[in-house]
């Protein structure tokens, strides 16, 4: 199990390598590490002596085609990089049992120092430097592309406009490796004295998230050029370019939706609802298409939909390497089991599985679908708006289907579409559901991408007669029965880090959390209920805000969790807590031990996302408040009795997180 909690399959790689004629033994390692590596014992004829770099390189190149074939079948997080191959020394053979089986744990202990040194070397970028002789954009661009070929493979087609995320499949590990190699290259060039412009430049000043902030070789090289030259681009300039892109996307896809044709070839007329010609069947026997069914929202939604007498069928769209129905069902079952939930809904005769992804233009949605609940989205707060364009395009395809058939669309949006709203004087900012929220209010690529979709949905309703709505979800917590709450999210990360930091912040704003059970009841009502005005032109913006109307202070939540924690966990002013977190980050980065430390202090991985919330708490700024009138109506008033957090539920969450850690 890697440091990020993912369980990397190892046998496929070991078996493939051991089938190679040069290899005697292959043992994959990587427990609690950022990436996998492999210890390879070669046969005596090809063994690599210590320090023999030429033989080492030759052996890596010989084995690499075999590894690439296996990598192609593995999930991104489990793929092996060439730099992580460690060859066993002929003088230190891998020990075996009497039956000839390798003693894995003994071998790992014998090579522990070598493995530690390799991880340290990779983290520091040792050996990853690429030579270049100028800081002009062309030279830096060539340097960046060379680095990317090293990371992603020489066979990858990489040009200046290649998207690191969309085309190369960049994840956090590869983004870190890209930045590390850039820093190593700049440092080597500076120390060589061959690039005078680097005199006095500090390579470590390269932003940690630079490979996410600039997602093509061309934009990345341009950013490096400006950084080296001391040209500072204000946050306002960066913000303005993102806002302009949002406007362009809204215009582009609004035009696409307006030009969508019905089967008879006529464009949809403004304001004509259910123009696909089918009579609405909402409230009777619904056929629901559900995306994101394996996520926290999706499993709860699937359970509630299966239990609903008005639902005839649920079609779960699942992204998977395999299109086999049994494999798709198995993945759905695993999603329930991993959350300590009964997998029975996955076996219901009501449920069918559809292999695909809305962002793929060949996804065939059955014509009988009456409602689409779109709950799938890339949840990575490092992604830019540009990275998330495929998600937007996928939603447009779903809207086009609704235009043609009269189906209703319910989109899982987020309060991050409005969390950048400016305060109103000294008071709280109150946002009504019918308020036309400017695009500027959205935060991060995640929130901005969903803000674009909110505008497109409203446009489709008012100008193309579609039934559709967006639900802005606030902080949705775990399952009130099993305590299943994604441990990697911001709030869980704070509480999971409390023991290691011996501290919790005393104020992170108002708590308006909802359990996933309460939130999904509202979602189901919006999807299959009758007279849902938020999905029609009777609503100005077609938005429902979904947060708990029963807000409590942050301190209430802290005390609920503290009741289950060691007495050594103290309550600190938010400023002091954040400084303690920053100090821990500096220590671990200096020691080259960030990934391992983040297992104990998971909030380290989210430091950059705390800026706004911590700053707000320090300044005493009032939080943004959301009107929840329509959500209360959809819940038939039940939302008014929802509890944000209590001691019992906090205990369930902590137990679930602990059980997940033990399984790892």
From TrEMBL:
<dbReference type="InterPro" id="IPR036291">
    <property type="entry name" value="NAD(P)-bd_dom_sf"/>
</dbReference>
<feature type="compositionally biased region" description="Polar residues">
    <location>
        <begin position="262"/>
        <end position="280"/>
    </location>
</feature>
<feature type="region of interest" description="Disordered">
    <location>
        <begin position="260"/>
        <end position="280"/>
    </location>
</feature>
<dbReference type="InterPro" id="IPR051414">
    <property type="entry name" value="Adenylate-forming_Reductase"/>
</dbReference>
<feature type="domain" description="Thioester reductase (TE)">
    <location>
        <begin position="290"/>
        <end position="516"/>
    </location>
</feature>
<protein>
    <recommendedName>
        <fullName>Thioester reductase (TE) domain-containing protein</fullName>
    </recommendedName>
</protein>
<dbReference type="Pfam" id="PF07993">
    <property type="entry name" value="NAD_binding_4"/>
</dbReference>
<keyword id="KW-0596">Phosphopantetheine</keyword>
<keyword id="KW-0597">Phosphoprotein</keyword>
<dbReference type="InterPro" id="IPR013120">
    <property type="entry name" value="FAR_NAD-bd"/>
</dbReference>
<dbReference type="Pfam" id="PF23562">
    <property type="entry name" value="AMP-binding_C_3"/>
</dbReference>
């Amino acid at each position: 199990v890697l440091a990020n909690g993912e369980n990397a399959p190892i046998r496929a790689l070991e078996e493939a390598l051991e089938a190679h004629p040069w290899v005697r033994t292959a043992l994959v390692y990587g427990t609690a590490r950022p990436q996998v590596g492999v210890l390879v014992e070669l046969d005596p004829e090809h063994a690599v002596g210590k320090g023999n770099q030429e033989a080492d390189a030759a052996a890596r190149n010989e084995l690499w085609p075999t590894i690439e074939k296996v990598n192609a079948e593995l999930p991104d997080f489990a793929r092996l990089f060439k730099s992580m191959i460690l060859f066993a020394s002929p003088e230190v053979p891998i020990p075996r049992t009497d039956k000839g089986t390798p003693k894995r744990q003994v071998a790992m202990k014998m090579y522990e120092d070598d493995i530690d040194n390799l991880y340290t070397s990779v983290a520091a970028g040792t050996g990853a430097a690429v030579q270049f002789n100028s800081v002009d954009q062309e030279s830096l661009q060539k340097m960046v592309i060379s680095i990317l070929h090293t990371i992603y493979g020489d066979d990858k087609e990489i040009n200046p406009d290649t998207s690191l995320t969309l085309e190369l499949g960049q994840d956090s590990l590869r983004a870190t490796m890209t930045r590390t190699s850039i820093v190593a290259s700049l440092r080597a060039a500076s120390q060589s004295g061959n690039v005078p412009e680097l005199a006095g430049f500090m390579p470590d000043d390269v932003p940690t998230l630079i490979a996410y902030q600039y997602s093509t070789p061309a934009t990345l090289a341009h950013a490096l050029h400006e950084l080296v030259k001391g040209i500072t681009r204000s946050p306002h300039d960066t913000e303005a370019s993102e806002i302009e892109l949002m406007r362009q996307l809204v215009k582009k896809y609004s035009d696409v939706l307006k030009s969508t044709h019905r089967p008879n070839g006529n464009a949809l007329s403004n304001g004509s609802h259910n123009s696909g010609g089918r009579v609405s069947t909402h409230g009777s026997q619904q056929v629901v298409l559900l995306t994101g069914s394996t996520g926290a929202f999706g499993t709860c939604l699937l359970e509630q939909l299966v239990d609903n007498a008005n639902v005839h069928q649920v079609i779960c769209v699942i992204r998977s390497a395999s299109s086999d129905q049994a494999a798709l069902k198995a993945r759905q079952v695993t999603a329930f089991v991993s959350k300590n939930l009964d997998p029975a809904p996955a076996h219901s005769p009501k449920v069918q599985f559809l292999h695909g992804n809305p962002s793929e233009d060949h996804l065939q949605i059955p014509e009988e679908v009456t409602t689409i609940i779109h709950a799938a989205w890339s949840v990575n707060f490092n992604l830019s708006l540009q990275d998330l364009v495929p998600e937007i395009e996928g939603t447009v395809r779903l809207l086009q289907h609704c235009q043609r058939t009269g189906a209703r669309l319910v989109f899982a949006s987020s309060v991050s579409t409005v969390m950048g709203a400016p305060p109103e004087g000294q008071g709280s900012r109150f946002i009504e559901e019918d308020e036309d929220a400017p695009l500027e209010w959205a935060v991060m690529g995640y929130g901005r991408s969903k803000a674009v979709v909110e505008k497109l949905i409203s446009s489709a309703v008012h100008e193309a007669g579609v039934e559709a709505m967006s639900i802005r979800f606030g902080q949705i917590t775990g399952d009130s029965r099993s305590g299943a709450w994604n441990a990697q999210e911001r709030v869980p990360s704070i509480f999971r880090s409390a023991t290691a930091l011996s501290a919790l912040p005393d104020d992170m704003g108002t708590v308006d959390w909802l359990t996933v059970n309460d939130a999904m009841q509202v979602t189901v009502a919006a999807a299959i209920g009758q007279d849902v005005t938020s999905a029609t032109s009777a609503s100005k913006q077609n938005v429902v805000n979904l947060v708990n109307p029963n807000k409590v202070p942050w301190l209430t939540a802290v005390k609920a969790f503290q009741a289950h924690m060691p007495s050594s966990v103290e309550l600190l002013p938010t400023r002091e807590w954040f400084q303690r977190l920053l100090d821990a980050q500096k220590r671990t980065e200096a020691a080259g031990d960030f990934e391992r430390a983040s297992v104990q202090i998971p909030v380290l991985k989210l430091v950059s996302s705390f800026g706004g919330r911590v700053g707000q708490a320090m300044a005493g700024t009032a939080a943004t408040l959301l009107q929840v009138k329509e959500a209360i109506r959809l819940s038939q008033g039940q939302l008014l009795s929802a509890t944000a957090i209590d001691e019992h539920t906090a205990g369930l969450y902590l137990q679930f997180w602990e059980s997940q850690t033990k399984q790892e």
